[in-house]
């Protein structure tokens, strides 16, 4: 019983990480049709900026309020990079989907190489508060606090995103834009502002994933974003592009499947099963669980 | 809204200035033979002891240089095969490295673990790679556009996982699997025989270029080009886009598997980095740098990419770069940083890739000609 | 003779190599309904979309389009719309996942008070169904919503693309009534296949054929000349009031 609880909660921790990456990807894709390979870079920037801030930013540190400050700095850095990428590189190619994908591919290659050039290819120990290294006993299972932190963060982000989409003017524009971008402009709305906004949201969520993922894994390395990104893509496709709720469901399904199969089967089989799940979903419902509808 | 449009190459002006016509006439007569000239040159490269300081470390016929060239040629062929999907049919596959890796590991495992003779291993590998491409393509092609890209990427990821986790001890996991050369034909083993591997790579490249050319000038190729430009129009003609795309996907997969076999011989084994998503993405970089949908662009792109990838590593640790401030020298020592940046610039400023440079230069030359000569 | 509200001169549109429009010129009068007619696929929708700046990125637009003294080409769609160009697209294009109220709220603009009174007076249904998802409305109700959200703001010209397409005859009459009232205060450029609706609403007519303007003039005169109508539009101007001409039958199902 304890094992099942533990696997469930660590699976949910993984799902939380996937969700933080996938929700932004999904919104960016749903609204702007940009398959953003540079999303993993935002995650890397968030992780390294947090790591850097904990040691160098005055007031920031690896514990207590200092750590919160470091994470805020990391998230801000990720957001800034995402906004700059959208304004400088994506916007000039408006509506030219393939070129946009190519640019993000180039950016992901160059960006990760740049991180590697600056901080080396090897994993670095991540500063983290002591309590995140400990475990909490839940129903007989010893669950790592870092994972619980991820779950809490993901639930908060999910709630905040849904509230934003549901009750704000920009949320309304994003939901409408995911359905029919052209018609939004035909109502007199500059939809490109919303593009910048979803890039900022996606960048912030990915950077948070980078920082908290660093806490969870205990290390940070340049390639971390890339491997998470592929599973995040799978989550986006399964959940339906443009749907935040769909991403949440799909992230939970993928995280749990991966964790349980990897534990009870040979290691790595869970990852393969996830791709199998993707194939099955595509064969049954080519548009994903929720289809191309921004659900709020 | 996600179909691939091949970048438009500016058409040469319709009116040809009278003075230029004879020159153009000669050029047109010579032009069809250029590939042949290039092929002959490539064949006789190993007989040249020409040192090219700065471009290669040893003379042209040194084993080290020939090995680099052979790898470049294989990737030239691989990029040309990938272009059958991307440039000529408009399919954005992010998983093409999978079939290449299947070729590398297939050959390696069948020779090293199963002890088969090379020709049997190669035959089985290419057949297996083709079947794999047909099966996975049959599933992936149920989606279009960006979803197709993601699905192919996910399939390639499974390949990477299978290789890295080393199920059954076949792949050697992170360590890779060195090729057991004891059972191979003597002419393909040993440093002195690198030249034969070079010729093998050249033959592979020529084969791919020939196949891609034949396919794209056949009726099937015209349907594929139609799919790239407007899939609906093909559907209206009563043709099934799915079947044509599956044919292209399978063929490209088979060609990639064959390239994997050649690559395995050249580098003497398999290592997991060839399954990485990085390689799959870089194939796109090669084609776009070279010029998608053109006969020689992807070949050039593939050769140049691998060459730069190889040389930039050396360049990055050279004295000239080391003496630069760290802000510059560190990024420059990362080949992927330089190549990724070049790629982004190419997308913005050279949408036709290298292949469009000739027509651009022609235009430039004409516009620079003094008005009196016009 | 008053100045036209819209001047289209020598408009050519090419989309991925296909010449859809080849030098189209016409004007839209500052009052009443000008109807744009022509057989299917002749480029009526392309014309409206070119005016409102929605030609796909692969397309190429040449010529001039002026609203009053202002040139419209090469300006982004949202600017044109804010400048008073209202666009009701083909197939209505309401946001199916959003509620009726949200669909309307989307059209509100900062610093401009939306004319909800006017819209709800025209379409009381929209007020009652505010919390309903637009996707669950009937075809006629969706059309009302599509027109209503454009009327929340003041417009100098309305572009309306096939508002009666796929609607039941009774609903067609309702839509025509609404458009008649709307046209009292704002000029309308209407694409319409249903000749009964054209007869009821249109004052001027522009007929496209093979990417060019084939006929312009008084709409009612055009409809009286049965032979001309048939040669230009491929349908009889018929005396019947329902939209059952050949070629329309397939689209005659009630969208809901």
Tell me what the structure shows.
- The complex is a heterotrimer of chains A (296), B (374) and C (256).
- Chain A is built from 11 helices and 4 strands, in the order ααααβββααααβααα.
- A two-stranded antiparallel ribbon of chain A has the order 1-4. A two-stranded antiparallel sheet of chain A has the order 2-3.
- The C terminus of chain A is likely disordered.
- Chain B has 374 residues and is an all-alpha fold.
- Chain B has a domain of 215 residues.
- Chain B has a two-stranded antiparallel ribbon.
- In chain B, helix 3 packs parallel to helix 7, helix 5 packs antiparallel against helix 10 and helix 8 crosses helix 10.
- Chain B is globular and about 55 Å long.
- The two termini of chain B are 43 Å apart.
- Chain C has 256 residues and is of the alpha/beta class.
- Chain C has a domain of 179 residues: Rossmann fold.
- Chain C has 10 helices and 10 strands.
- In chain C, the strands form 2 sheets. A 6-stranded mixed beta sheet of chain C has the order 6-7-8-3-9-10, sandwiched between helices. In chain C, strands 2-1-4-5 form a 4-stranded antiparallel beta sheet, with helices on one face.
- Chain C is globular and about 45 Å long.
- The C terminus of chain C is likely disordered.
- Chains in contact: A-B, A-C, B-C.
- Chains B and C meet through loops of B and loops of C.
Spell out the blueprint of helices and strands.
The complex is a heterotrimer of chains A (296), B (374) and C (256).
Chain A: H1 2-32, H2 39-56, H3 64-90, H4 97-119, E1 124-125, E2 135-138, E3 141-144, H5 145-167, H6 169-179, H7 181-185, H8 191-217, E4 219-220, H9 224-239, H10 244-264, H11 269-284
Antiparallel strand pairs in A: 1-4, 2-3
Chain B: H1 21-30, H2 34-44, H3 63-89, H4 97-112, H5 118-140, H6 145-165, E1 177-178, H7 194-217, H8 219-229, H9 231-236, H10 241-267, E2 269-270, H11 277-290, H12 297-316, H13 319-322, H14 326-332, H15 335-349, H16 357-368
Antiparallel strand pairs in B: 1-2
Chain C: E1 6-15, E2 18-28, E3 33-38, H1 44-51, E4 59-67, E5 70-71, H2 77-82, E6 85-88, H3 100-106, H4 116-122, H5 124-128, H6 139-151, E7 157-161, H7 169-182, E8 188-191, H8 195-201, E9 202-209, E10 212-218, H9 219-224, H10 226-233
Parallel strand pairs in C: 3-8, 3-9, 6-7, 7-8
Antiparallel strand pairs in C: 1-2, 1-4, 4-5, 9-10
């Amino acid at each position: 019983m304890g094992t099942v609880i533990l696997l469930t909660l660590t699976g949910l921790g993984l799902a939380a990480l996937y969700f933080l990456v996938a929700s932004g990807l999904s919104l960016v894709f749903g609204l702007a049709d940009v398959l953003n390979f540079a999303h993993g870079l935002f995650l890397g920037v968030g992780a390294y900026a947090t790591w850097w801030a904990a040691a160098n930013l005055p007031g920031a540190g690896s514990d207590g309020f200092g750590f919160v400050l470091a994470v805020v700095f990391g998230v801000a850095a990720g957001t800034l990079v995402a906004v700059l990428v959208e304004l400088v590189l994506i916007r000039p190619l408006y509506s030219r989907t393939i070129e946009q994908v190519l640019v993000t591919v180039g950016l992901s290659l160059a960006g990760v190489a740049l991180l590697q050039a600056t901080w080396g290819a090897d994993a670095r120990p991540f500063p983290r508060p002591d309590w995140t290294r400990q475990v909490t006993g839940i129903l007989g299972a010893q669950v790592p606090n870092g994972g619980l932190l991820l779950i809490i963060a993901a639930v908060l982000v999910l709630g905040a995103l849904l509230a934003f989409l549901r009750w704000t003017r920009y949320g309304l524009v994003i939901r409408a834009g995911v359905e029919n971008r052209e018609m939004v402009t035909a109502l007199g709305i500059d939809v490109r502002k919303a593009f910048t906004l979803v890039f900022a949201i996606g960048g912030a969520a990915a950077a948070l994933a980078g920082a908290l993922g660093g806490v969870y894994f205990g290390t940070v390395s340049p390639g971390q974003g890339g491997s998470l990104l592929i599973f995040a893509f799978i989550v986006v496709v399964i959940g339906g592009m443009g749907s935040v709720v769909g991403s949440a469901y799909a992230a939970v399904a993928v995280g749990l499947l991966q964790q349980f199969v990897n534990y009870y089967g040979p290691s790595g089989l869970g990852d393969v099963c996830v791709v199998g799940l993707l194939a099955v979903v595509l064969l049954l419902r080519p548009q994903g669980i929720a289809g191309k509808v921004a659900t709020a | 809204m996600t179909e691939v449009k091949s970048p438009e190459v500016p058409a040469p002006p319709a009116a040809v200035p009278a003075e230029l016509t004879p020159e153009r006439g000669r050029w047109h007569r010579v032009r069809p033979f250029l590939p042949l000239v290039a092929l002959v040159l490539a064949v006789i490269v190993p007989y040249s002891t020409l040192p090219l300081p700065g471009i290669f470390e040893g003379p042209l016929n040194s084993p080290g240089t020939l090995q680099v060239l052979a790898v470049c040629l294989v990737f030239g062929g691989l990029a040309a095969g990938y272009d059958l999907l991307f440039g000529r049919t408009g399919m954005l596959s992010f998983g093409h490295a999978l079939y290449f890796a299947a070729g590398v590991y297939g050959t390696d495992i069948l020779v090293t673990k199963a002890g088969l003779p090379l020709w049997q291993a190669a035959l089985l590998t290419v057949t297996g790679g083709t079947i794999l491409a047909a099966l996975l393509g049959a599933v992936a092609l149920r989606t279009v556009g960006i979803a197709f890209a993601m699905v192919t990427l996910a399939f390639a990821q499974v390949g990477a996982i299978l290789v890295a986790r080393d199920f059954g001890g076949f792949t050697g996991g992170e360590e890779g699997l060195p090729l057991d050369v004891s059972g191979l034909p003597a002419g393909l083993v040993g440093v002195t025989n690198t030249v034969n591997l070079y010729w093998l790579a050249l033959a592979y490249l020529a084969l791919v270029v020939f196949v891609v050319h034949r396919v794209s000038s056949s009726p099937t190729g015209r349907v594929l080009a139609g799919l790239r430009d407007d899939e609906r129009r093909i559907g209206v003609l009563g043709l099934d886009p799915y079947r044509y795309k599956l044919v292209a996907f399978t063929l490209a997969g088979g060609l990639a598997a064959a390239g994997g076999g050649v690559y395995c011989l050249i580098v003497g084994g398999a290592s997991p980095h060839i399954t990485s998503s990085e390689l799959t993405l870089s194939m796109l970089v090669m084609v776009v740098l070279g010029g998608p949908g053109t006969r020689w662009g992807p070949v050039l792109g593939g050769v140049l990419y691998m060459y730069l990838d190889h040389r930039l590593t050396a360049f990055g640790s050279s004295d000239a770069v080391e003496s630069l401030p760290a802000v510059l020298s560190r990024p420059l020592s990362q080949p992927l940083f330089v190549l990724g940046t070049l790629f982004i610039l190419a997308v913005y400023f050279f949408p036709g890739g290298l292949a469009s440079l000739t027509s651009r230069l022609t235009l430039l030359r004409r516009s620079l000609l003094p008005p009196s000569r016009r | 003779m008053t100045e036209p509200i819209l001047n289209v001169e020598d408009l050519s549109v090419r989309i991925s190599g296909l010449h859809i429009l080849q030098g189209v010129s016409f004007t839209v009068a500052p009052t009443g309904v000008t109807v744009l007619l022509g057989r299917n696929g002749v480029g009526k929708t392309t014309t409206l979309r070119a005016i409102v700046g929605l030609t796909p990125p692969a397309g190429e637009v040449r010529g001039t389009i002026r609203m009053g003294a202002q040139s419209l080409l090469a300006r982004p769609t949202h600017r044109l719309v804010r400048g008073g160009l209202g666009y009701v697209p083909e197939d209505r294009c309401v946001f199916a996942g959003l509620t009726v109220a949200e669909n309307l709220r989307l059209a509100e603009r900062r610093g401009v008070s939306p004319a909800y009174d006017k819209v709800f007076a025209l379409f009381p249904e929209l007020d009652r169904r505010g919390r309903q998802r637009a996707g669950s409305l009937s075809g006629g109700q969706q059309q009302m919503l599509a027109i209503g959200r454009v009327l929340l703001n003041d417009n100098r010209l309305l572009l309306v693309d096939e508002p009666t397409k796929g609607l039941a005859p009774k609903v067609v009459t309702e839509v025509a009534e609404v458009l008649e009232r709307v046209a009292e205060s704002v000029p309308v450029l209407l694409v319409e296949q249903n000749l009964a609706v054209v007869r009821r609403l249109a004052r001027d007519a522009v007929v496209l054929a093979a990417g060019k303007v084939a006929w312009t003039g008084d709409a009612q005169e055009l409809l009286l000349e049965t032979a001309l109508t048939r040669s230009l539009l491929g349908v009889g101007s018929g005396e019947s009031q329902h939209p059952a001409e050949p070629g329309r039958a397939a689209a005659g199902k009630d969208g809901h």
